[in-house]
Specification:
Layout: E1 11-12, H1 22-25, E2 26-30, E3 46-47, E4 54-55, E5 63-83, E6 89-98, E7 106-115, E8 122-147, E9 152-153, E10 155-159
Antiparallel strand pairs: 1-3, 2-5, 4-9, 5-8, 5-10, 6-7, 6-8
Length: about 160
């Protein structure tokens, strides 16, 4: 039996042209995951408010997720989401990329998100990029730049442009 609560506002991935199949082209390395919110939730196709999410098992700890691509990928578009409905805090997300198998990284984004149960609870970020031959993509999540909390991300999607 498949079921879903009717007022649940979760989007299920609709294939978009150029979407990279992360699950088959990347190996994930990560610093932590909560057993109820594993890394698989980050790319399970359920995104938007109320979507499944990855969460750290360690509160107030900076976490890292690294995608190791084989073969290297051209990334032209990155989409990720963060949702926090319970606590007031500021979370930072940094995105770094490597073209030399993880020996060196270049930062392409550093963004802070301030969440408040009475205000902003959801962030959707879309970046246009021009990243040829990426071997590694690193996400660094600082959960407690302001307040306390657990690092979390709701979804991650990557796209390549047709040449």
């Amino acid at each position: 039996m498949h079921k879903r609560l009717m007022n649940e506002q979760v989007s299920v991935r609709a294939e978009r042209p150029g979407e990279i199949d992360i699950s088959s082209l990347a190996r994930f390395t990560y610093s932590s995951e909560h057993p109820d919110h594993p890394l698989e939730h980050l790319i399970d196709g359920r995104y938007g408010r109320g979507g499944t999410h990855w969460a750290s098992a360690r509160p107030n700890t900076t976490e890292r997720i690294v995608l190791d691509f084989e073969p290297p990928q051209r990334i032209s578009h990155l989409v990720y989401e963060v949702e926090e409905c319970c606590v007031e805090r500021t979370q930072e997300v940094r995105v770094e990329v490597s073209t030399d198998h993880g020996s060196t990284y270049r930062q392409v984004l550093a963004q802070d998100y301030t969440f408040s149960p009475q205000g902003a609870t959801f962030q959707h970020e879309e970046l246009q990029l021009d990243l040829p031959a990426i071997t590694h993509l690193s996400l660094i999540i600082v959960p407690n730049k302001g307040g306390a909390g657990v690092a979390s991300l709701t979804s991650l999607r990557l796209f390549t442009s047709a040449d």
